[in-house]
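USER:
Class, as today's exercise, take the chain set out below, and explain how the chain folds.
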Amino acid sequence: MKGTFAETLAHLRAKKGLTQRQLGSSAGVAWSMISKYESGQSSPRLKILIRLAKALDVSVDELQGHEPEPDSVPIILESPDGDEMPISLDRKTFDQMQEAARESGKPVGEILSETIAWGLRMIKESPEFAASLKRQIKESREPDDGE
């Protein structure tokens, strides 16, 4: 949700079904301060912001109206003949590719292409690598025992 801190706080409190008094009690803040925060008359210090986020079961970033980064990054690969193939990279992998791009001075797309080409070459040249990759993919698709 984009908006002011006051709007975000009021929205998240209402979404939880809490009154200002209940939120204040849960966060250890006077309800009158919750009212001032929601009306934009006052802003909480970091210590109170953390307690409000905990009471609302959200991150401090979310409470401040910042959108969380998605867990994955969509990418569209394009072949030389123009065919497109959408893929999704997990955030950590994408961040590592961005870092490699910064360090090498190459565009992220080039790093991605080189990585895919390396992987395909390894699959072709190393049966052990191919078997390990196949096992990892299978394991990643199996539900965890806790699910």
